[in-house]
Structure formats: C-alpha cells, structure tokens
Amino acid sequence: MDTYDPHIYEFSAPGKQGVNLPRLDVPEAELPAALLRQDGMNDFPELTEPEVIRHFTRISQRNASPDTCFYPLGSCTVKYNPKLHEEAARYAGFAAAHPLQGDALSQGALRLMYELQQDLGEISGFDAVSLQPAAGAQGEFTGILVFRAYHCHRGDHERTEVLVPDSAHGTNPATAAMTGLKVVEVKSDARGNVDLEDLRSKLSPRIAGMMLTNPNTVGLFEDQIVEICELVHSAGGLMYGDGANFNAILGIAKPGELGFDFMHYNLHKTFTTPHGGGGPGSGAVGCTAALAPFLPGPLVRQGADGRYAFFTPEKSIGRMKAFHGNFGMLVRAWAYIRSMGATGLREVSEVAVLNANYIRARLKDLYPQAVDRICMHETVLKGQIAGAQGVRTLDIAKRLIDYGFHPPTVYFPLIVPEALMIEPTETESKRTLDDFIDTMRTIAREAVEHPDLLHQAPTKAPVRRLDEVRAARQPILRYNAEAFAKLRAERAS
Ligand SMILES: *Cc1c(COP(=O)(O)O)cnc(C)c1O
C-alpha cells in the first residue's frame, strides 16, 4: 500500500517534552539578548521521546540495504559488510585518534595504513599505494593528474588526450575532462570488448593515456588486454585501470602484471567498506615505481628502526584529501583483507563469478544477453521479453521491488539497449539466487500476461514511482504542511 505516515511535526502539541531537566538550583537570570536566537525556532515540534524514537526508527527501516535484502546492483559491488569490521573500526585507539596527534602517538594507526598499502600493492601487482582519495572517481582524477605530471616532468607537454571506451562508467570521461584533457571515445566490438582497429586509429603522440575497466562494464574480461596496453604504451601513453570490477579477479590476475600503470581500488565495493549512504567511500590508488614519485601524500613508510612515519613523495601532485583519507574505511578494508587471507580473496572472486554465471545461464532464455559469452562477476541482460508489449527494463526493475529485491543497475552500460546489469556478489546463497531467478521468471510471465502489474509497480513499497529527476533537483528537505497534505490527497485519489 502506498502510505504517507503522519509526519513527526503532526504529533506536535504545546508542552510535550522528551527530557526532564533537573530542578533549577542556581539563581534564575535572564540570558543576554545577544545570545538569544532570533529566528527559526518558532515552529520547532514539541514531542515525547517515544514519538521521536518511533519516527526515526520507522524511517530507518525504509532503507534498502545489503543487511535487509538481496542487492544485485551491477558495477557497484554492493556486498555484505561483515560486522567484524565495524567492531575493529570502533576500537577507541582508531576511532578516537586525532589526526594531529603525531607519528609517535599513532604507531598502530600508521602500521595499519602501511600494511594496507602493502596488501593492496601485492593484490594488484603495483609498487606503491596512496590511501588518500575518498572515492573511485577521485582516484581517477588523481590518476590522470599523475599521468599529466609524469609527462610534463619529462618535458612532454603535448599530451592532451585521454582515450575512454564507449562502455566506460560516466566518471571516467568526467574525471579526465576535469583535469583539462580532451576525452576521445574508443568503440567496442561485437564481442563487447575494445575494438582494436578503432583503438589503433586513435593512437597518436597526443595521448596522455587510456582509461579502461577490466573486466569491463559489460561484465566481460578484456582478453586482448596485454595487446591494448602494448599499443597504448608504444604511443607513449599510460594505462589507467578503473578498479571498480576488481571483485572478479582477486587472487587470479594482477592489473600491474597485465600492463596497467595506475589503478584505483573502490574499498567500498571490493573491500566491503559501507557503500553509498552507509559511510564515506575510499578510492585508494596504486601505481608502478615510475609513477610513485607523483602520488598524493602523505604515504606511510617504515624506517630501519621499525617505526612508521608519514612522508610525501618528492614530486607529489599534492593532497587529495584532508589529513589521511577516510581512515575508518581503511581499518575496515584492512580487517577484510586480513580475515580473508590470500586464498579467501581468491575464493571471493571465484564464487562471485560463479554466482553471476549461474544467474546468466538460468535467465538467458527469457532475458537476452548483451553478448553471448561467459561473464565475469556480473551479467548484462536485456529487459526485452519476447511477446511482452510495451514493457521496459524500468518496469521489470520496479516490479522486483514488490517482490522484496533491490533492482539491478538499469540502462547502464549505455551501449546496451534496455540493459539490466546484475551483480549478485559472492556472499549470496544458492537459495537466494534461486529465489531471485524464480522471481525474474515470474516477472517475465507477468510481462506477457498482465503487463499492467509491471507498469503499476511498485505497489508494495512506501512510495510508488518517483519523479527521479525532480527528486534529485528539487528535493523537499524540510517539513511543509501544505506539500504533505497535497501529496497525501494525490495518493488517496
Ligand atoms: C562505481 C564505479 C566508479 C566510480 O567509483 P566511486 O567510488 O563511486 O566514485 C567508476 N567506474 C566504475 C566502473 C564503477 O562501477
């Protein structure tokens, strides 16, 4: 049912209160007028403690999250966040550490950062790691700034272009453009990989490098990756690896060995730190020894005496983030890597890939595949159901909400029409996958027999179809009695 619960303001009544202040035991005095607030408090609600608690608890239960449901959002790797990591991040020595307390009083925190740098470098085959960037997108921005600094330092000032495949995530062209370089698109071939002919035609002494996601956003491994890297290098360019899909190759392939020069790790995707609204992100970056002097600092190193200290590389592009990155996320990622171990991380990728292929194999008769190939950790299908009139991917996604699933990514990658990009992750049981598959098959049948069920979906969520553009551009963030009354009347009619 579509319901709008009474807003907390509507419970308000003069004189209600949620705290009992102790009796005044000092002489009463007037506050100086200058300290009195002049505005804004007139319509503050007056409520009891239980009313406030119920309000906030109720709205917190309206979140969809990997703690409450299957969350197969493709490209984003929304996997379960083990609670062990939360405990580690809350240790007082980490949570209460002050970023200015100095190296001598921060040896434990520095050791953790140093070990995380080492571990990420080992897992990816890179010589140096900076934990500064706050997200994958900022890691991309960092990487292209480092490429530019590297070329300029060598007196190579004419490299003004960055190659980006047409399957790329929007952040790739956006971050490259933010550095002032020009984005040149490279086409994909019929197998869903980089079109080598098109790539060759776009190589020139003007390229600073290429940004590539491998496996790519069609969920496919770029099996010509070694040749792609050689081509770009032979034109004097550098290879940026978008590590958002690292979950598919942990312990199996190292980007540094495939030929990449630089990459970001989305700690909030692959390394289980909370995603999206669940916490700040972390987009640590790794690179080859040749690019290490340009990394944003400070980094952590260990001296001959065994003590840890911050240092900034000699030709650093500067800071990307205040203090030391999102430190709480570094603790969680460290805990993840250490609790999984090398064999555990490899198993993560093996099971993630197996799960995606299981879904692909059991749905491809009803939902056409973007490309008929074995996939990596996510599968891209199309919401084009045979015999279903006027049903679109968006309708399928909305109907999944009625069945208690978070929808997959839709309409991305842009090169796949009606894309449904499903990433189950390794933490889901066969039973959950089977429930999801059965539901997708039911929806395909409904699409043919009762398409209105899909067009009207979701009917069981707290709200129906939202105007997503208006919700993003003109959000109503404050209580507005008139707007609420209007919404409720609209829904009731
Ligand atoms: C998520 C994602 C990014 C951006 O990462 P953020 O951490 O969200 O900034 C870049 N590329 C791909 C392929 C992604 O899925």
TrEMBL record:
It comes from Candidatus Viridilinea mediisalina. Its cofactor is pyridoxal 5'-phosphate. The modification N6-(pyridoxal phosphate)lysine is found at residue 269. It comes from the Bacteria. The glycine cleavage system is composed of four proteins: P, T, L and H. In this organism, the P 'protein' is a heterodimer of two subunits. Belongs to the GcvP family. C-terminal subunit subfamily. This is Probable glycine dehydrogenase (decarboxylating) subunit 2. GO terms for molecular function: glycine binding; glycine dehydrogenase (decarboxylating) activity; pyridoxal phosphate binding.
